[in-house]
């Protein structure tokens, strides 16, 4: 598979503050890469470096095999970008700004634009100062999805959208994915990432701490088990990989590290399992775990 | 009966909060203006020790052009240090005080409202009118402090002709003009629907006041009493010490402010009273390019400036007729002209006027180039540079617009000057002479543009330096003669190197060097701009 974006050893300092430390990341052709991390972790800095808006302190980033800083304009003809904080000119209408963005980006078609304006239910004749956050985001989304770009860089694009519009957004991403386009999707809405993304990268304090498919990431973490056994499972708490155990006489709810699942199941089988439910960890669990583990908060206890 | 709504609840708390945000800004404004006033007051006795010297200056003030520019004086026959100081300084300083008030008031009313900060405040137990009342109280304090420092500072100079009472009135006059414009801005902030609209309306009101009083001071002084700006010098500190205009100013503030409160109470947050036009669903082709966007964003500002400069030209031109007839009857003044001079005094005055027109013409030029940074600051450049637009293209787009507006500015004011003086003078100056005198300043304007562009490229957080330099040029070129500033200070203003046509002969050297320097600095700015981060800074 071709690699569209290659980031190698990318660092960015603002004065003495290191916003990004030695980041390595790839986006492959046709994939949707989810980019998640807490506020201030460096997601937007990474994206702004990729756009050539910030200059790297060290390291390289390439899109379509070209350097993002020196070949910005050429690269941008094949990129569509939606910022998280959409800042528009208060005196221009949404329709004017959509046309401007499409024109400046260089590709896009009028029929597709009008179709998107309809789907996102935007009134394009209103001055953008009257738009809510969600409507401002729609302006940027419509301009981006109307373009014929090969790479879509979406920085928290749905934080202001209502659930209906969020669904339209997800459809749009699936459509461009079906056309073989690549997407970098930074988001806090983890269900959205779970649904849309092929791979996920987690960033924290300027460092990529995890990359992989959701399956691969799940393997690194715990699953939630709910069991009911004939004989009380009173030795459960002595297993090393078991966490957050809540136990009544014959029922137990607990999490278990992926690599310990086999051992625990073996033990439970001997006790006569009456009911067993297991839930794979959600992305939120993954995220919380990374966040808590490295954020210095207490252990692995969470809801 | 409804209970009285607590419209002003938390005003005092907001006032303290605003003072904490603004104290540095306020101190810089107040200290800057006060120190300048006191320094001039301190140096005048040394510069003009004898009454004969002062009287010589007074004679040059006794004509319509100077009255239009700096205002009238009732003491030209006894031009004491005090009379000289209040005549030459009050109107000019009052303009700066008015700008200070306009900026601070619109910032805290419309500015905070537009950025959504007011919404946060209004969600708390804060009265509907609390922000406006806290802002006005802040301005009362600021102008009061300014008045007090002027009164004490000028009074402490201990000059015979500058009594403590006169000094207090001088300070109060400045303060009254200040709060009159604070109240006016508070009113305009209710009428306009955006922060930019409120600032434009308020500045236009100030400009109109300056022009109105220029015309009435020359031809019908009693009508000058209608202008809030004129209430400053109508008190005639150190001469008549009349408190009446200050009193009128306070009454005006009361009236305007209650109107502002009423309108603020009536309207919704975020709305204005002037109609908001709807828009088009799709862009016209003219918008769809970097220069199309830049021109569209700057259109309203630039057109207003061109009209304003044309009107300034007309205003100055219209006093040329009075000037002409005045000189005809004044032999002693004609003797002051060099014998071999082939130029009339009118033409000499024109060359002085040109400096003022050039300084005014620089304002839209700097506004244009600083828009590039303004857009960046508001986070709007990201979307542009994420599209297929290069830094170089955007930078030189703004340079081209700045250069174009510089030429158009000088042209507009020259045209206004020509048309007005042609209408009122028996032997008008011809268009070519006026145009050449005006266009000789274009390289200087380009130099100012290049300084602006270098700041945008290399020191984006310090673009204010560009405005400071313009203020420096204005003070030195406008007051340099009066204050007898050292030659090196004059050499530092770019306008000083422009040949003063038609009185001086046209040397191509200085304008050419200025233009080449400007081009070089622009290129340096471009090099910096292309290499730096785009910094959002809301």
Automatic annotation (TrEMBL), chain A:
Q: In the UniProt record, does the keyword Nucleotide-binding occur?
A: yes
Q: Per the database record, which ranges form the ABC transporter domain?
A: 5-230
What InterPro entries does UniProt report for this protein, alphabetically? AAA+_ATPase (IPR003593), ABC_transporter-like_ATP-bd (IPR003439), ABC_transporter-like_CS (IPR017871), ABC_transporter_ATP-binding (IPR050763), DrrA1/2-like_C (IPR025302)
Query: Does the record bear Manganese in its keywords?
Result: no
Q: Which CDD domains match?
A: ABC_DR_subfamily_A
Could you list this entry's UniProt keywords, alphabetically sorted.
ATP-binding, Nucleotide-binding, Transport
Q: Which domain of life is it from?
A: Bacteria
What's an example of a GO molecular-function annotation for this chain?
ATP binding
The family classification in the record reads: Belongs to the ABC transporter superfamily.
Please identify the protein, giving its name as recorded.
ABC transporter ATP-binding protein
């Amino acid at each position: 598979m071709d690699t569209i974006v290659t980031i190698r050893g990318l660092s960015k300092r603002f004065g003495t503050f290191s916003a990004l430390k030695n980041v390595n990341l790839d986006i492959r052709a046709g994939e949707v890469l989810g980019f998640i991390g807490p506020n201030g972790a460096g997601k937007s800095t990474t994206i702004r470096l990729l756009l050539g808006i910030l200059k790297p302190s060290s390291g390289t980033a390439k899109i379509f095999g070209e350097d993002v800083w020196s070949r910005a304009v050429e690269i941008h003809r094949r990129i569509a970008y939606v910022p998280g904080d959409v800042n528009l000119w208060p005196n221009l209408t949404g329709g004017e700004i959509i046309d401007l963005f499409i024109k400046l980006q260089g590709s896009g078609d009028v029929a597709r634009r009008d179709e998107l304006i309809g789907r996102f239910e935007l009134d394009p004749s209103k001055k953008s100062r009257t738009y809510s956050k969600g409507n401002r985001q729609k302006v940027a989304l419509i301009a981006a999805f109307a373009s014929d770009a090969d790479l879509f860089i979406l920085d928290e694009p749905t934080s202001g959208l209502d659930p209906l519009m969020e669904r339209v957004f997800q459809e749009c991403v699936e459509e461009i994915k079906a056309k073989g386009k690549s997407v970098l999707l930074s988001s806090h809405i983890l269900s959205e990432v779970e649904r849309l993304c092929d791979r996920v990268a987690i960033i924290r304090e300027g460092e990529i701490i995890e990359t992989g498919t959701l399956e691969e990431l799940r393997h690194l973490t715990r699953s939630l088990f709910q069991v009911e056994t004939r004989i009380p499972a009173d030795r459960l708490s002595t297993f090393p990989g078991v966490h957050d155990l809540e136990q009544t006489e014959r029922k137990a709810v607990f999490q278990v590290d992926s690599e310990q699942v086999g051992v625990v199941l073996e033990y439970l089988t001997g006790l006569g399992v009456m009911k067993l439910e297991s839930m794979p960890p959600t992305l939120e669990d993954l995220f919380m775990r990374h966040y808590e583990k490295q954020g210095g908060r207490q252990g692995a206890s969470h809801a | 009966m409804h209970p009285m709504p607590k419209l002003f609840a938390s005003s005092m708390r907001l006032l303290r909060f605003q003072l904490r945000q603004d104290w540095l800004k306020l101190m810089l404004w107040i200290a800057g203006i006060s120190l300048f006033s006191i320094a001039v007051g301190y140096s005048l006795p040394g510069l003009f020790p004898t009454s004969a010297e002062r009287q010589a200056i007074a004679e040059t003030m006794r004509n319509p052009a100077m009255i239009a520019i700096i205002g009238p004086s009732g003491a030209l026959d006894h031009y004491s240090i005090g009379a000289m100081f209040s005549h030459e300084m009050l109107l000019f300083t009052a303009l700066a005080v008015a700008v200070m008030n306009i900026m601070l008031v619109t910032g805290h009313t419309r500015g905070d409202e537009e950025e959504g900060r007011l919404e946060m405040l209004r969600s708390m137990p804060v009265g509907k009118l609390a922000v406006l009342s806290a802002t006005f109280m802040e301005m009362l304090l600021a102008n009061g402090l300014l008045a007090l420092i002027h009164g004490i500072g000028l009074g402490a100079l201990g000059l015979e002709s500058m009594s403590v009472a006169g000094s207090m009135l001088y300070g109060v006059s400045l303060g009254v003009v200040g709060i009159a414009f604070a109240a006016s801005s508070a009113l305009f902030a209710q009428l306009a629907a955006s922060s930019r609209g409120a600032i434009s309306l308020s500045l236009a009101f100030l400009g109109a006041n300056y022009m109105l009083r220029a015309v009435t001071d020359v031809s019908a002084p009693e009508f000058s009493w209608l202008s809030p700006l004129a209430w400053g010098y109508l008190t005639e500190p150190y001469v008549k010490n009349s408190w009446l205009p200050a009193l009128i100013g306070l009454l005006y503030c009361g009236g305007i402010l209650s109107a502002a409160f009423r309108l603020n109470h009536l309207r919704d947050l975020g709305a204005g009273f002037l109609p908001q036009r709807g828009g088009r669903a799709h862009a016209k082709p003219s918008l769809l390019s970097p220069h199309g966007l830049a021109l569209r964003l700057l259109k309203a500002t630039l057109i207003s400036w061109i009209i304003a400069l044309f009107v300034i030209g007309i205003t100055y031109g219209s006093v040329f007729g009075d000037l002409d007839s005045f000189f005809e009857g004044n032999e002693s003044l004609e003797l002051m002209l060099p014998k071999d001079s082939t130029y009339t005094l009118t033409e000499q005055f024109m060359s002085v006027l040109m400096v003022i027109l050039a300084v005014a013409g620089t304002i839209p030029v700097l506004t244009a180039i600083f828009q590039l940074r303004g857009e960046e600051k508001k986070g709007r450049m990201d979307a542009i540079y994420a599209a297929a637009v290069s830094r170089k293209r955007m930078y030189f787009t703004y340079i081209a617009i700045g250069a174009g507006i510089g030429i158009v500015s000088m042209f507009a004011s020259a045209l206004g000057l020509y048309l007005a003086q042609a209408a009122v003078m028996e032997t008008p100056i011809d268009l070519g002479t006026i145009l050449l005198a005006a266009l000789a300043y274009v390289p200087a304007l380009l130099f100012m543009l290049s300084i602006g562009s270098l700041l945008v490229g290399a020191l984006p957080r310090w673009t204010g330096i560009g405005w400071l330099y313009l203020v420096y040029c204005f003070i030195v070129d406008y007051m340099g003669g009066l204050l007898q500033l050292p030659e090196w200070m004059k050499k530092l203003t770019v306008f000083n190197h422009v040949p003063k046509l038609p009185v001086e002969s046209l040397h191509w050297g200085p304008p050419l060097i200025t233009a080449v320097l400007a081009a070089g600095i622009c290129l340096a700015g471009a090099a910096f701009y292309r290499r730096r981060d785009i910094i959002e800074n809301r």
